[in-house]
Design goal:
The complex is a heterodimer of chains A (99) and B (432).
Chain A (H helix, E strand, L loop, with lengths): L2 E4 L4 E4 L4 E5 L13 H9 L7 E7 L7 E7 L5 E5 L1 H10 L5
Antiparallel strand pairs in A: 1-2, 3-4, 4-5, 5-6
Chain B lengths: L4 H8 L1 H4 L4 H9 L20 E4 L3 H14 L4 E4 L15 E2 L6 H21 L10 E5 L2 H16 L5 E4 H7 L15 E5 L3 E2 L2 H14 L3 E3 L4 E7 L2 E7 L2 E4 L2 E4 L5 H7 L7 E12 L7 E4 L4 E5 L4 E8 L11 H14 L8 E11 L6 E4 L5 E5 L9 H14 L13 H4 L14
Classes of the chains: A alpha+beta (99), B alpha/beta (432).
């Protein structure tokens, strides 16, 4: 059972209040009608699925109903922090795209 | 068991002398069971092999076995980072069935089910395959329409399946509660009589022993740390026990497939999730079949030891930690009590999680890759155990011929680019 801090409510709450929103910051191809099938397929389906630190979205489903981003370790279940999407994006970019 | 076996031994020479038989049981019994030999050799890695299989679970060992048996390739190493069959092979709920909706999936799982039916004889190892039938319950009118559609599709594919009414379900499973005042009343079920369960450890051990007899090297405690690729071709692997060279490498690593793929510069459409299960204390026989329900998200059977074996749905987040969150277990337990109120006082004994690699269409990837000589068999998600022999069988064909078997051609990695997905989500009675 995870305890996440919702950056909007500023409350630490149990996982059951939240819904998992998948890998964060997946870039949508700029011109979908001009992109090839491989690029579009990768955008839709291919995921990093890392063993280690992962940037992911969570949705405060029974709280403020807002999405935010969490940096969580998939091997140890440690949580580094949670941020609104734009703030998290800056940190994500600063560390090289969650590599 | 197999009274005729000693007569077969004449033709097959030394290989068969070590076979298990009624006679060998009797003979070993006389010497206080102290003369049994290990079921397989624990090999040291050689510098090179014809084929390397990464992953010593059921699927990997089955691949090695069928490569040796059907394709005459004996120079094989199976490398396993932990101990044999210690991953998902030991962490599932052992259900075997083939009642899938779409032709591609149904034919693949039916191929596997047919292999299960002869597996104990084929491996000379009792995998305790018990065809006790599998019920997939329907709780709403839409469930029942889906069940009818799936049963019809199954019958067209030559797979045994029938639609049962609630009363017919009750007649076969006396403890089940079909009263109308439940939150999720049971309206009926699909029933596959040839489905059932098998002994998970025996499957890994049986394949390991049979493969080992063909000369396959089984190397435990050997984790892959890198892939040696040059000019778009696989040259070998780096492991914690040194480099091993091979022109052909098959990866069958379930939850860790994405980790291996990354070493080869490949990205896969996989997400690794925890899938939890738990067993009760041993009870007298109360349930002689397998009951699954998507709507309430639980499935159960009773093992030969008497434990109720109960499976939950996946935890939705990514994890490699082989553990999940307690509320998922609570949800599965609630589902089981909804179906069987009698079990509300049963005490639970053990609980565990495995890491399942799920694909967007809930169907596996059994495929060549852009790296020549590197093959992946992954994405089995929540339902890999039932496919163990079939998966190994078609993957062995794919590796031996550098070309997929007709049954796994549709399960190529390219389908996520072409859009030819095989959408089994929710369609096949898959609890996930």
């Amino acid at each position: 059972m995870f305890v996440f801090k919702c950056p909007f409510c500023q409350e630490a709450r149990e996982e059951e209040e939240f819904a998992y929103g998948g890998e964060a910051f997946i870039a949508r191809p700029d011109a979908p009608d001009q992109t090839n099938e491989a690029t579009w397929g990768d955008y839709l389906f291919t995921r990093k699925n890392p063993k280690g630190w992962h940037w992911e979205m969570w949705f405060h489903a029974t709280g403020c109903r807002k999405f935010f981003v969490v940096k969580r370790n998939t091997a140890t279940h440690a949580i580094a922090g949670s941020w609104p999407l734009a703030e998290g994006r800056k940190l994500y970019d600063a560390e090289g795209g969650g590599a | 068991m197999r009274a005729s076996r000693p007569f077969l031994a004449v033709d097959q020479g030394a290989l068969v002398k070590k076979d298990y038989s009624f006679w060998s049981l009797f003979k070993q019994g006389l010497s206080h069971n102290e003369g049994w030999e290990p079921a397989w050799r624990n090999a040291e890695p050689k510098p090179s092999y014809n084929v390397i299989i990464v992953g010593g679970g059921g699927h990997g060992l089955a691949t090695a076995y069928y490569l040796a048996k059907d394709h005459g390739i004996r120079d094989i190493a199976v490398v396993e980072k932990g101990y044999l069959g210690g991953g998902n092979t030991a962490r599932n709920t052992t259900i075997v069935r083939s009642n899938y909706l779409w032709d591609e999936a149904a034919l693949l799982y039916e191929h596997s089910l047919k292999l299960w039916e002869g597996l104990t004889q084929d491996l000379n190892f009792n995998v305790m395959f018990s065809q006790r039938g599998v019920f997939n319950l329907g709780h709403t009118l839409q469930d029942m329409r889906d069940i009818e559609r799936r049963v019809n599709a199954n019958n067209l594919n030559g797979i045994d399946a029938m639609v049962l009414s609630a009363a017919e379900v009750k007649a076969r499973i006396p403890l089940i509660d079909i009263s109308k005042n439940r939150r999720y009343p049971i309206l009926g079920a699909s029933f596959q009589p040839r489905g059932g369960i098998a002994r998970h450890d025996a499957v890994a051990w049986g394949f390991a022993r049979a493969a080992s007899k063909y000369g396959v090297d089984i190397i435990e405690n050997c984790e892959v740390t890198g892939m040696d690729i040059a000019g778009g071709r696989i040259k070998g692997i780096e492991t914690t026990r040194g480099a091993i060279r091979a022109d052909r490498v098959g990866c069958v690593a379930a939850g860790h497939s994405s980790v291996l793929a990354k070493m080869a510069g490949i990205r896969l459409p996989l997400e690794s999730h925890p899938l939890q299960a738990f067993v009760s204390e041993s009870l007298k026989p109360v349930l002689h079949t397998v009951v699954m329900s998507n709507a309430v998200h639980g499935y159960l059977s009773q093992s030969d030891k008497g434990e109720l074996v109960i499976g939950a749905g996946i935890d939705h987040y990514l994890s490699y930690a082989q553990r999940g969150s307690p509320h998922i277990i609570e949800h599965a337990a609630a589902a089981i009590i909804e179906l069987f109120p009698t079990f509300s006082r049963v005490r639970m004994n053990r609980q565990w999680g495995g890491i399942v690699d799920t694909t967007p269409d809930a169907c596996p990837i059994i495929s060549k890759t852009k790296v020549k000589g590197l093959y992946f068999n992954c994405g089995w998600g929540t339902g890999g155990f039932k496919a163990t022999p079939g998966s190994g069988n078609v993957f062995a064909h794919t590796i031996a011929h550098d070309d997929p078997h007709p049954l796994n051609r549709a399960f190529s990695i390219d389908r996520f680019h072409t859009g030819h997905l095989i959408d089994e989500h929710g369609a096949a009675g898959v609890a996930h």
